[in-house]
Amino acid sequence: MKAFEKNIRKVEPYVPGEQPQERVIKLNTNENPYPPAPGVTKALEEMDAGNLRLYPDPTAEVLVNALADFYHVNPDQVFVGVGSDDVLSMCFLTFFNSEKPIYFPDVTYSFYKVWADLYRIPYECQALDENFRIVKEDYYPENGGVIFPNPNAPTGIYLELDQVEDIIAHNQDVIVIVDEAYVDFAGRSAMELIDRYDNLIVVQTFSKARSMAGMRVGYAISNPALIKYLNDAKYSFNSYTMNQTSLVCGARAVEDRVYFEEGIRKIIETREWAKKELADLGFEFTDSKANFIFAKHPKYEAKDLFEFLKTQKIYVRFWGSRRIEQYLRITVGTREEMEALFAAVRKYIEEQS
Ligand SMILES: *Cc1c(COP(=O)(O)O)cnc(C)c1O
């Protein structure tokens, strides 16, 4: 072994869902099946490549202001980044510096563990109960910070806001991050608690409900003090995280509330219909409030079904990790995509019997 090896920061990276380059029915990474708001297309058409010679606005003002307007907060309560992964990673770096472990659920977004390892933050996973629900009391002991998604991923289960508030209220000596990647499909956001708890950060993304995963835009809403700490860390890292194109397109997307709400309505409608179809096919699943369904079939191995679907050019997500070995996570696509999925599942079931 080379002497320098011992000083290398070695990490086991997060493994993203596959992004096949051939045409498939893609239900594996919770992207939105519908295009972004029409204003985004227009902004791209009107864009002048000549402007790319300039650095983008480091304060990301157009996007920050658009988000502040949309959520009725002040611009100094908004932090933006390159997808919420960037925002969350920056939050870990900025706020989780205690010697005590941070807490997050055992079945959750697997990136939390990766950032904790990367930044050498001690952590402890709190087990979800047998119905995959967060047990709020598990977050009462003294800790170095708390993070959980709401709805949780990959379970899709939405924790009612009074329970979210209870966790925040019991952790006022540390920062609590609520990762709301899917909240637009679910219910009330913890954003309404921002003024009451100075330890709360709410993180959201353009990747799911706003159909812009390819643009990489995420944001945090909090009080001005915590947002300032985030910006200080960002400026110490890379002043220009957000490129000009994302700033403009992001702002255009936020301005179109009608399109946004209609898109969410369609996904929820398809999700609830898909649950009925899955039940008819014998699947068991959590009551997901997100844009995916977390399902298992009592008769078939998740891995086998996953592999079979792939041969049919239908991609869903499978981990095979502890507690969720038999589960598949199926993104809610268009009605047509879901029909194709169910046809393929029927074919699989017929072949097995
Ligand atoms: C998708 C997702 C994110 C990250 O999304 P970005 O594309 O980086 O904005 C963060 N948290 C959870 C729980 C997610 O599912």
TrEMBL record:
CDD domains the UniProt entry points to: AAT_like (cd00609)
Protein name as annotated: Histidinol-phosphate aminotransferase
Family indicated by similarity: Belongs to the class-II pyridoxal-phosphate-dependent aminotransferase family. Histidinol-phosphate aminotransferase subfamily.
Any single biological process term in GO: L-histidine biosynthetic process
GO molecular function: histidinol-phosphate transaminase activity; pyridoxal phosphate binding
InterPro entries: Aminotrans_II_pyridoxalP_BS, Aminotransferase_I/II_large, HisP_aminotrans, PyrdxlP-dep_Trfase, PyrdxlP-dep_Trfase_major, PyrdxlP-dep_Trfase_small
Residue span(s) of domain Aminotransferase class I/classII large: 23-344
PANTHER family, A to Z: HISTIDINOL-PHOSPHATE AMINOTRANSFERASE, HISTIDINOL-PHOSPHATE AMINOTRANSFERASE-RELATED
Known cofactor(s): pyridoxal 5'-phosphate
Keyword Amino-acid biosynthesis: yes
The protein's assembly and partners: Homodimer.
Taxon lineage: Bacteria, Bacillati, Bacillota, Clostridia, Lachnospirales
Pathway membership: Amino-acid biosynthesis; L-histidine biosynthesis; L-histidine from 5-phospho-alpha-D-ribose 1-diphosphate: step 7/9
Pfam family, one: Aminotran_1_2
Top-level lineage group: Bacteria
Keywords linked to the UniProt accession: Amino-acid biosynthesis, Aminotransferase, Histidine biosynthesis, Pyridoxal phosphate, Transferase
Enzyme Commission no: 2.6.1.9
Sites of N6-(pyridoxal phosphate)lysine modification: K208
Catalytic activity, reaction form: L-histidinol phosphate + 2-oxoglutarate = 3-(imidazol-4-yl)-2-oxopropyl phosphate + L-glutamate
